[in-house]
Amino acid sequence: MPLHAINPKTWDGNLRQQVKLEHGMGWSISHQAGRIKLTRRNPADGSRSSVILDLPWGPPTTAREVLEAIATLRQRIDTRGISLRAAHELDATAATINGTVDWSAIQARFLDSLKSRKGTTLSDVRRRVERTLQTLATKPVPHDGKELMHLYEQQHLSELAPGSAGRRRNLQDVARFLTFAVEECDAPQQWLPLKGQKRRELVGAADGRDATLTPPIKPEQLGALLDALEADGRHDLRLAVGLVGLYGLRPAELATLRIEGDRLLVGQVKRNSADMRKSAQEQARLKERRVLPLDLPTHPGLGAQLAAQWASGLVKLPPQIATAVAAGDFKLTGDALRQYLNRYQPWKALVAATPGLTPYSLRHGFAWRAHKAYARSLSVRDAAALMGHDPVTHSKFYGRWTDEQGLLDAVAGLTGSAASGVLTPP
Q1: Closest-CA residue to 331 (of 157, 166, 167)
Q2: pLDDT greater than 60 at residue 339
Q3: How many CB atoms lie within 10 A of CB 326?
Q4: Which end of the chain is more exposed for a tag (fewer CB within 10 A), N or C?
Q5: Cα dihedral 176, 127, 268, 390 in deg (nearest 10)
Q6: Closest CA to 341 of 215, 218, 251
């Protein structure tokens, strides 16, 4: 209808005139089934598309409500490059007109979109999203996605090593949540997350000279921990700690142990995308490795003793670990060991004395002993095979270990005489 033909004295005539004046000749409204039908003519090819607005035709609908609804759709079309129908289908309840975002509503929708994921993965994502909402409510309040991710890193990831998988997964899930908020829930564009190099910088570099390496538990520390567990009657936790520490297992590998004759075998917990595409039967036949203990000089034969206890069932793993093992849940197995240790006072004392010590330090202690604790050291190739990774990975992560005492011991072992590290005065 030509603009001059609109009768401004009627409700619809007045509204049509305002639509044309504010949004141009390509936009028009009409009545359909008691609702307002909005039509847009595409200026590129002249094609038309229509949607039904959730507004009744005629009073009490006001012209301002209609004009604001059209303005919102236009903004989505212009900023996202989408069609009128796609813009209309976006859930506009996440952000109000003044830009205030209902993050709780977005959280519910985001988690609902992931409900097909397995329990442990969804649990991790839920925890990270809850932390994101905590950061949004903590001063200083972030004003956009970039600020939010930096504050999240400061508040929740300070204890994770630069470049670690934990930092990467946390920031990846925060970014997915923010992207969902903008693209699916109509949050303002300012909440888009860091991308590319900027996000990689926030994750950090695992291979850099300043990257933090989880320290190994030293032989005397492991021996003292095992003795304390025995004295406290914690034979179940002693079994778990001893198997991981003496055999160099990943904590999650407690879920894959198997005895065959006199051999202790460990299955794979680190599987690539190609492995995960295999059937359950094929995955069950993934290559196992034989593991052997590196016993402590103060506890000879303890590795074989613990393996026999586990195989016979005379000593059982702690209940939460046993439950995770029975479910075949690798992540929960490792998490349960961490929780048990974090509640155990002698372990807390070790962590206080050696900052950065984690349950993975039990595995790292195996690598440390392999190269530094005995009169002769294992080759990198043999140590890597026992630990279940390749020699390059072994050298990458364990080749940088050195401390002052380690250097003194290495020189003494090489020269046959003690090295004080101090210049002898002339």
Answers
A1: 166
A2: yes
A3: 11
A4: C
A5: 60
A6: 251
Structure tokens at 85: 């129908």
Long-range pairs, 192-199, Cβ under 8 A, ≥24: 192/145, 193/145, 193/146, 193/148, 193/149, 194/145, 194/146, 194/149, 198/146, 199/149, 199/171, 199/175
Residues 6+ apart with CB under 8 A from 223: 296, 298, 299
At 382, phi and psi to the nearest 5?
Answer: -70, -40
Identity of the residue numbered 19: V
Tokens representing residue 388 in the block: 């279940």
pLDDT for the residue numbered 211: 39
Please give the mean pLDDT across all residues of the chain. Answer: 83
Buried b (16+ CB within 10 A) or exposed e, 163-201: bbeebbbbbebbbbbbbbbbebbbbbeebbbbeeeebee
Asked whether the beta carbons of 126 and 110 are under 8 A apart, the reply is no
Tell me the pTM.
0.53
Q: Which of 408, 403, 414 has its CA nearest to residue 376? A: 414
Unique residue bearing structure tokens 């570099």: 205
pLDDT at position 160 is 74
Cβ neighbour number for residue 210 with a 10 Å cutoff: 7
Question: Count of CB atoms within 10 A of residue 209's CB?
Answer: 6
Exposure string of 341-369, with b = 16+ CB inside 10 Å and e = fewer, is: beebebbeebeeeeeebbbbbbbbbbbbb
pLDDT for 97-107, tens place per residue? 445 788 988 99
What is the pairing mode between strands 289-291 and 263-266? antiparallel
- Mean pLDDT value of segment 127-145: 92
